[in-house]
Amino acid sequence: MKKTVISLAVATSLTLSFTSVQASTSANASHHQSSEQKVLKKINAEKIYQDIAYLSKKPRVAGTEAEREAATFVQKRLSKLGYESEVEPFTFTGYTPAASFSLSVNGTGYSPTTFTYSTNGNVTAEIVDGGLGTKDNLANKDVTGKIVLVQRGTITFGEKVLNAAEKGAAAVIIFNNTNGELNGTLGGANDNYIPSLAVTKEEGEKILTSIQKGEKPSGTVKIEGAVVSERTSYNVTAAKPSTFKKKGTNDIIVVGAHHDSVAGAPGANDDASGTAMVLELARVFKTLPTDTELRFVTFGAEEVGLLGSEHYVSELSENEKNRIVGMFNLDMVGSRDAGDLVMNTADGTPNLVTELAQASSTRLNGSPTPFQAGGRSDHVPFAEAGIPAALFIHSPSEPWYHTPEDTLDKISKEKLQDVAEIVGTAIYDRSRPDQQGSSVKKKATFKAPHLYHEQDVK
User: Fold this and answer.
1) How far apart are CA 256 and CA 166, in angstroms?
2) To which H or E segment does residue 430 belong?
C-alpha cells in the first residue's frame, strides 16, 4: 500500500511538473507572439513605397549631385524620426564612361563595348594574337606599338591590359569566351592602362582567324570622353542605443542598404527599395524597447565596388567589430518581376542573421527563407571583418536590372511588406529586452537547408 502511495505521489508530481512546463512554454510563446505583433503592426509598405518614389526620380550615381541629394534626403528622414543622424563623406577614384568609342578592322566597323576604367586613345595599328594575355603568352611576342587581341579567361581583364602595356602594346581588344556581349571592368584606375575594348566571341574569332591566316589585319581603336577623377560619396548613419543603460547586452545590429544607382537607371528596386526599407525599420524601432544597439546605415558607392560599406567597416574600432552580432543587408527587395526571397552569405554558410531570419520566416510564412553563397553587395565587407552578415534579395533578378526600366511601377508593395516583416521580426527577436523569448538570443540554433549555387546578381 505504501508503494502505491509513493507511485501516486510521483505521478502527481510529474503531472504537475509537466503541466507547469506546458504553462511556461505556452506563456513564453504567447509573450513572443505578442512582442512580434508590436513589429508587424507598425510596418507600413505604403511608407516604403513613397520613399522609393522620391528616391527613384532620377539616377543616383556615386559622386554626383544626385547621390548627395539622396543622402541628404535619408539623413533628414532619420532626423525627423528623432535620430541623431550624420552624412559621412568619403573620397574615391571615380570613372565617367567614354562618351564615344569605336573599333574597325580593315575598314569594317565592329560593335565593341568598353571596360570601366579604360583610358582614352586613338590607335591604328596591326592586330596581333596575344592568347589569353598572360605574361607567358606575351613573353616571346613582338607587340610594341601594336593592338593585342586576347581572349577572356584565366586572369582578370586589368591584368591582361597591364601585361600588354608592359610589353609596349598600344591598345588591347578582349573577346568573349562565351556567347553574348562582354561587359566588364579593369578593376580600378591605373596610369599604366592603355585603350581597351571588348568584342563578342564571334567577332574575336573572326579577327583571330585573319591573324592565323597571316593576313596581318589593321585595326583602329578609338575611345573618347572617359574621365578618371577623385570624387566624394556619402554614407548616412543613425543609431538607436539600448533602451536600458545598465541592462543592455552591449551588442550591435546593423541594418543597411546602398542609396546609389548605376548611370541611366532610376534604381527603384536597386536600391531605393532597400534604402526605403532601412528608413521604415528605423521608424518601426524608434519607439520599441530594445536591449541591443541598432544602427541604420545607407551606403554610397556600392555600384562602383562596395566602397561605402568598405569605408564604414574600415572606420569601426575593434571593440565595435566584436560587438556587432549581425548585419542585415537589404538590396533589391521590392521588384514584382524578380523571383523569391533568398539570403546570400559571402561564404555560403549560415550565421546568426540567416538563422534569425529563417526562424522568423518560418513563423510568418510556414517555411524558412533559403540562403546561398553570394557576394557583390554591402554584406561582404562586414563578413570579411568576421561579422555575421547576409544579403536579402529576390532571385532571379528582374529583367530590367541595371536599366532605365528599373522604375517605381515595377515595385510590389506585397514583397516590400513580406521582406520588412521577416527582417523586422528577426531583428526584434534578437534585440527585444525580455530574456525568455528568443530561441537564438545568445546563439543561433535554427537549421534549415540552403542553396549551394553562386548567383551573381549585382
Assistant:
1) 42
2) helix 413-431
